[in-house]
Specification:
Layout: E1 3-8, H1 13-24, E2 31-38, E3 41-48, E4 67-73, E5 88-90, E6 93-101, H2 104-113, H3 124-136, H4 141-149, E7 154-162, E8 169-174, E9 179-182, E10 187-190, E11 202-205, E12 211-214, E13 219-222, E14 228-229, E15 233-235, H5 251-257, H6 259-270, E16 271-272, E17 275-276, E18 293-298, H7 300-317, E19 321-325, H8 326-329, E20 342-348, H9 354-365, E21 369-374, H10 380-384, E22 387-390, H11 403-422, H12 428-449, H13 452-462, E23 467-472, H14 475-491, E24 494-499, E25 516-520, H15 527-538, E26 543-548, H16 553-558, E27 561-564, H17 571-593
Parallel strand pairs: 18-19, 18-20, 20-21, 21-22, 23-24, 23-25, 25-26, 26-27
Antiparallel strand pairs: 1-4, 1-10, 2-3, 2-4, 5-6, 6-7, 7-8, 8-12, 9-10, 9-11, 11-15, 12-13, 13-14, 16-17
Helix pairs in contact: 2-3, 3-4, 6-11, 6-12, 7-11, 7-14, 11-17, 12-17, 13-17, 14-17
The structure holds 5-amino-5-deoxy-1-O-phosphono-D-mannitol.
Length: 610
């Protein structure tokens, strides 16, 4: 994964690069490093762990430097140590990389035979030495880069500085995102526009196979054949939105609390004068009449948002809907109908998830229509789509997705309603009663948020259990999956989500008095069936915590606790409010266990390698 950033211009670069890295830390926080070029000399500072660990080392760099590159790492090859941190150095150069060099082992063996000594276990160092070898042999850094990238297999965005050409930063892109920011007598680059949008709104998105030479006053781009490419400038309207904790202890907690506001904003954006804004929902950018099948593609929590969407989408539109993990979809050769008959819908908070992006590109090549629901404007997935919805969740900083999930669920549902309306499959009265309930959804969310104190107390009793099960039926099954993922992700407790009806097909063997089971049991069409499943669990001494109606006596008799959750008519809205309880539960259990809630171990906010 990793985030990269760089600056060249008249200003002192170290603070600019360090501040840019702060914005990139969501892409990885295993280590960080900066290299600068000053008076013909390259200096590097790097450190393992979070970016803040690097701060004290910055004074070792020449403070006057005005050419710098920086990297924040999510470890793919080699432990998160200082030696494995980028930038990597070789003869006369420093290099940073985002992506994976798949043929690095062969290349490394070849270089070792030639006597190259490796200081790290990374795939990236191979590229540094290949470049160093060429530069030492007399190649100009630009020519060295052109030759070396032809030898690389995999995905990369690379940035190189060399003392052999101290007025330029050289860039190359294949598979991983890379964008240039054009300033006045200064230029930037980053893994995405947030790296530099505090300085300039003018961006040039590099395409796969392109290289660039970034000077303070010039940008030159060329393709693999060396043909010059005219830079295509995009004016970005993405402010460096302030993303502070606003008094909350963690971003995650703040983001959980923001959810009723996000729903109001989403409603305001897509419902105008009591009717759906089909343009805003991206429905005018696709040819819906042609669509014979829909594939929803996503990863992690976004995948669960897709699974929730399927419930309403398939029946309301009368079109078969398949929801699939991007990492599976991309390698199984799925049946895709060309000429726009298959619609592939990607759901992604970051818009940069590598597997999801690869699926879209593949489906596009096959002639499918491409739609996306993203939170980050100008992200790769957003730009790759024929039609899109931009969510109104605002920046999500906590690695565990919370407000983005409920926003994705709502956006996918509103899209479904809009599509049904366009296809003439939705009665006006049905739409109006749904929109009526939607208006009150923020109030119901606030009620669900009121359970916070209750859940915090409950967490005090539960945090030492090593295993949890989450169960539900219908959309609540998906919330069970999401609840289990949240708990695993931030508390490191083993948890599994199951369809309540599946328990007796195996998982019920795990149930005894040491197993807490969180049952999501709203008063919906599945209520009686879920209740029977809870009875079965209780007959085996399972400790059930229900998320449902606190006045429900039957539930109260069976469960050790009930987390109060309001009841709603529309299944999608019910799923949204039920989610709040599983988010709080994961959060407060993690707090009791003392884990790093906002940046849990081994994870990154955006997964930009496959
Ligand atoms: O940016 P994306 O929505 O594409 O990310 C997908 C997953 O990596 C993400 O939802 C992940 O599962 C979250 N950390 C879960 O909280």
């Amino acid at each position: 994964m990793c985030g990269i950033i760089g600056y060249i211009g008249p200003k002192k670069c170290i603070d600019i690069v360090f501040d840019g890295l702060k914005k990139m830390e969501y892409r990885g926080y295993d280590s960080a490093g900066i290299a600068v070029l000053h008076e013909g000399q390259i200096s590097i500072s790097k450190e393992s762990g979070k970016l803040e660990n690097l701060r004290p080392l910055l004074e070792q760099l020449p403070s006057e430097a005005h050419i710098g590159i920086g990297h924040t790492r999510w470890a793919t090859h080699g432990l998160p140590t200082r030696d494995n941190a980028h930038p990597h150095a070789s003869e006369k150069l420093a290099l940073i990389h985002n992506g994976i060099i798949e043929n690095y082992k062969e290349l490394k063996a070849e270089l070792q035979k030639k006597g190259f000594h490796f200081r790290s276990e990374t795939d990236t160092e191979v590229v540094a030495h290949l470049l160093g070898e060429r530069i030492k042999a007399g190649d100009h850094p630009r020519d060295a880069l052109n030759k070396v990238i032809l030898r690389l297999e995999g995905a990369f965005s690379l940035a190189l500085i060399s003392d052999q050409d101290p007025h330029f930063i050289y860039l190359a892109k294949q598979g991983s995102p890379l964008v240039i920011g054009l300033g006045k007598d200064e230029n930037f680059f980053g893994s995405d526009v947030t790296a530099f949008c505090a300085h300039t709104q003018k961006a040039v998105f590099l395409q796969d196979g392109e290289c660039a030479a970034l000077g303070a006053k010039s940008v030159e781009i060329w393709d693999r054949q060396g043909h010059p490419i005219q830079p295509k400038t995009t004016m970005i309207q993405w402010s460096a939105a302030s993303a502070d904790k606003q008094g909350y202890r963690h971003y995650m907690l703040k983001e959980i609390h923001e959810q009723s506001g996000v729903i109001s904003k989403t409603t305001h954006a897509f419902v105008k004068d009591s009717s759906l804004d089909l343009e805003g929902l991206g429905l005018n950018s696709i040819e819906l009449n042609k669509v014979r099948s829909i594939h929803i593609i996503a990863c992690g929590t976004a995948y669960y948002a897709g699974m929730t969407a399927k419930y309403a989408m398939e029946t309301t539109l009368g079109i078969p809907v398949n929801v699939e993990l991007a990492s599976e979809f991309r390698y199984r050769n799925p049946l895709l109908m060309g000429e726009g008959q298959t619609l592939v819908m990607a759901i992604s908070q970051s818009g940069e998830t590598a597997d999801t992006l690869a699926c879209l590109k593949h489906a596009k090549d096959k002639g499918c229509q491409i739609f996306s629901i993203c939170n980050v404007a100008y992200s790769s997935i957003h730009r790759e789509s024929h039609g899109s919805i931009l969510m109104h969740a605002g920046p999500e900083i906590g690695v565990a997705s919370t407000k983005a999930f409920t926003s994705q669920v709502l956006c996918a549902y509103l899209w479904t309603l809009g599509a049904a309306q366009k296809l003439g499959r939705l009665h006006a009265e049905d739409l109006s009663s749904i929109l009526q309930e939607l208006k009150s959804l923020p109030i119901y969310m606030d009620k669900a948020l009121n359970a916070e104190e209750h859940i915090a107390e409950l967490a005090n009793k539960l945090y030492e259990y090593p295993n949890f099960l989450f169960v539900g039926r219908g959309p609540s099954y998906i919330i069970a999956l999401e609840g289990a993922l949240k708990l695993k992700e931030i508390s490191y407790i083993h948890a599994e989500g199951y369809a309540a009806g599946e328990l007796k097909h195996g998982p019920i063997a795990l149930v005894d008095k040491h197993m807490p089971i969180v049952a999501i049991v709203p008063k919906d069409q599945y209520y009686d069936k879920t209740l029977s499943n809870i009875e079965e669990i209780c007959a085996r001494e399972g400790q059930v915590i229900a998320i449902g109606d606190e006045k429900d006596q039957h539930l109260r008799d069976l469960c050790i606790d009930i987390i109060p959750c309001p009841s709603l008519k529309t299944p999608c809205f019910q799923a949204i409010v039920s989610t709040v309880a599983v988010q709080f539960l994961a959060y407060y259990i993690a707090i009791k266990r003392g884990t790093d809630v906002d940046q849990p171990r081994n994870l990154a906010k955006s997964v930009t390698v496959e």
